[in-house]
Each structure stands twice: as C-alpha cells, then as structure tokens.
Write a structure and sequence with these properties.
The structure holds two protein chains of two kinds. By secondary structure, chain A is an all-alpha fold. Chain A is 74% helix and 0% strand. The chains are: A mainly alpha, B alpha+beta.
Chain lengths: 317, 78
C-alpha cells in the first residue's frame, strides 16, 4: 500500500525516471515516512486508549524492596515498555535512589528505557520484519541486564552527588483518573500529539538519511567496507553513534537502508543501539546527579557491550 | 486567590504548562498566582517523578505531560 503510494507520487506526480538514484531516494523517503507516521499514530493511539503507558512513579512502586535479581528483571522489562522523556531521567534517578533501589538496577532501567519501547518495537516489526525486531529487542534487554550488573560491580554509589541522598520524597498522591471511553479517547489523542510532537523531527531526519543512503551509496562500496569482514567496522559504528543522537524510532529507517545495501546485521544493530542509548545530551542531564567518573564508566560499559553484541551477530550470521 | 505551582526543572512542557494556565486564567478572569518550582528537592517532596506536575493550593492534581484544557478550566473554576 505504502509502496504503491510512493510509486504514484514519485513516478506519476513528480515524473521521475524509475531507476535513477534521485528517484530511488525520493521513493524511499515517501514510502518510509508515510508508513512510519501511520504506524506511529496507530500504536500511540491504541496504547493511549488502553492507558498502557506506565508512569515512573508506578515503576518505582513495582521495583522497590525486591531482591536484586527480581528488581533487575522488572527494571529491564518495565524500562522496555515505558518510553520516557530523557528530561525525566533526573527525577527518576533520585526517586529510585530514595526508594532504596540499588544503583545497578537503576542503570539497567536507564539503559533499557531509551533503547526499547513498544512504539519502536511495532515500527521495527513493520519496517524491518519480526526477526530483526526480535534480535534488536533481545540484544537490548541483555545489554541492559548485564550493563547494570557491571556498573554495580564498580560501586557507583561513591560518585552520586551528595544532595541526592538528602532528598526526601513525599508520598505520591493518588490521582484519580476518569476511565470512561471518552476520557480515554481524549487522553490517547493528547498522547499522540505529545509524542509525535516530540519525535517527528528525529523520524524525518532518520528517513532522510536512510533515503540518501538508499539512493546514493553504492552497494559495492558497502559490501567492501561494511560487509562485516573487518573487525573494526563494529566499534567504528558504535563510536559513530555516540555523538549522534536520535530517538529509537528515528534510527529504524537508517537501519533499513543499511541492511538493504548489505551492511552486516551486527554492525547495523551496534549502530542502532549506540545512537538510541548512548547520547551526549542524556549524559549531560545525568551529570546533575552523578559525577563524571560514573558517566564515563556508563558510556564505556555500553560501548563495550554494543561492540560485543555487534561482533556476536556478525559472527553467527 | 488560587495558588498554582508548576513543578518541573525547565523542560519545554513545563514552560508550556505554566503558560497555558496563565492564559486560561487571564481569559476567565480568575485571579491566580502561578509559581514555577524548579528545585528538585521541592518537586520530589510532592512525590512527583514525571514532570510537569501541577499543584493546586498545596494539593497535587496532575503529573506527567501537558494537562488538557478541560483539566485546567476545572482547576480554575472551583
């Protein structure tokens, strides 16, 4: 359907020559942006209708006071289903610390949350197919689980800013929610507006980069340099992803274009995870609660983990 | 006079929330004092982790995301 729509626009309306590079790029852009935005609207609306999006307050209640492994499993899976705005990572961090949740568990949550969410999961399935979606999600969950565990081994408590320990959190007032269908519908619409308003730029930028890659990068060059034969292409992809930041949804069309040209699966996954989960702005925000050594360690642990995941997949594929 | 506190450490949605409330108050002619609370300790004292939060006369009435127009009108009316 989206393919036909892109055909119509590219070849009929714009009168572009089928098979030319520019036409390929334009076709990719129209197809992916229409498909992703339609999927986004649907998923976010349905999630909103079900009120399936958990608030960080609820997550904190679920996780607190449980034994370590249980808390970590919950933090990882709840992190995966809550798309939270990185602007809430500071109150989230403090709230977890105040609830006595181990820092390693908090880090597991902070890794899983930006990397995986149900909206990105649906787009992944729609654009890349369920196999790749499952790989990405499994890799993300594993990295979040072990990443937090490794952080814990370094005793990051010593790097937490002093004032964080002193904050006392008030009892969260239970807000009553109107559960009628009309209220749910309004809430879902507001969610759609809010989330799309926040991420549409990332998505369009991602599709544009994917389109350029799809149209203009020759497949021969890709298979020569990024086909997965060289050990350095994975760490290269991870390093490239650190200064680049995008929402998890925005990186999907880029991955689609890369895979289409024959970039190795592990290399692509490593770039996706690095772009979604390792970002400078996020680090700067967390600097308010933890000092530089912890941030550097956090970045290093993630970079190593993504590299290992990338190599692993390149080896077996 | 009503006192409304908007909790949030300077994110864009927090600014927008404060502006929405001020505008609605001006339209309906309700006297209201809107305070922006950016201090993290103070925000957390209300039990809020997802900002922006809204506190009406000392009681938390909203947290996480932009409030709806209906909700704002309700806060200002009673």
């Amino acid at each position: 359907m989206f393919d036909a729509f892109a055909d119509l626009l590219t070849y009929q309306l714009f009168g572009m020559q089928a098979g030319s590079r520019a036409a390929d790029a334009v076709h990719f852009f129209i197809m992916d942006s229409s498909k992703i935005f339609v999927l986004l609207l649907l998923v976010i609306y349905v999630m909103g209708l079900l009120r399936a999006l958990l608030s960080p307050e609820r997550v904190r209640e679920f996780v607190r006071g449980r034994p370590d492994w249980q808390a970590r499993s919950m933090a990882v899976s709840l992190g995966a289903v809550t798309p939270f705005c990185s602007c809430s990572s500071v109150p989230l961090f403090i709230g977890f610390v105040e609830a006595g949740i181990p820092l390693g568990v908090t880090f597991s949550f902070l890794i899983a949350s930006p990397m995986i969410n149900e909206v990105a999961a649906v787009i992944l399935v729609g654009v890349l197919g369920w196999k790749l979606a499952a790989l990405y999600i499994a890799a993300g969950l594993t990295v979040a689980w072990f990443g937090g565990l490794v952080m814990q081994a370094f005793h990051p408590e010593r790097w937490v800013e002093e004032y964080v320990w002193k904050i006392h959190m008030g009892e969260a007032a239970r807000l009553q929610t109107d559960n009628s269908l009309i209220a749910r519908h309004r809430y879902a619409l507001a969610e759609v507006k809010e989330i799309i308003g926040r991420i549409w730029v990332w998505v369009l930028a991602g599709v544009a980069i994917g389109a350029l890659f799809h149209g203009f990068v020759p497949a021969a060059w890709v298979s020569e340099h990024l086909g997965g034969k060289d050990w350095y292409s994975v760490p290269g992809a991870v390093l490239l992803g650190i200064p680049l930041y995008s929402n998890a949804t925005g990186i999907i069309p880029v991955a689609e274009a890369m895979l289409g040209k024959g970039v190795a699966v592990g290399t692509t996954l490593a770039l996706m995870m690095s772009v979604a989960a390792l970002s400078l702005p996020e680090m700067l925000i967390l600097r308010k609660v933890i000092r530089w050594p912890a941030l550097a360690l956090f970045a290093a642990v993630l970079a190593v983990a993504f590299t290992l995941v990338g190599w692993g997949f390149n080896l077996i594929s | 006079m009503k006192n409304i506190k908007v909790l949030g450490s300077g994110c864009r949605n927090c600014e927008t929330t404060a502006n929405l409330i001020t505008q609605a108050a001006a339209q309906t002619g309700v006297e209201v004092e809107v305070q922006k609370i950016t201090d993290m300790a103070e925000i957390m004292a209300f039990g809020v982790m997802s900002t922006p939060g809204v506190v009406l006369d000392g009681k938390l009435v909203h947290s996480g995301g932009l409030p709806s127009q209906e909700a704002i009108r309700e806060w200002l009316s009673d």
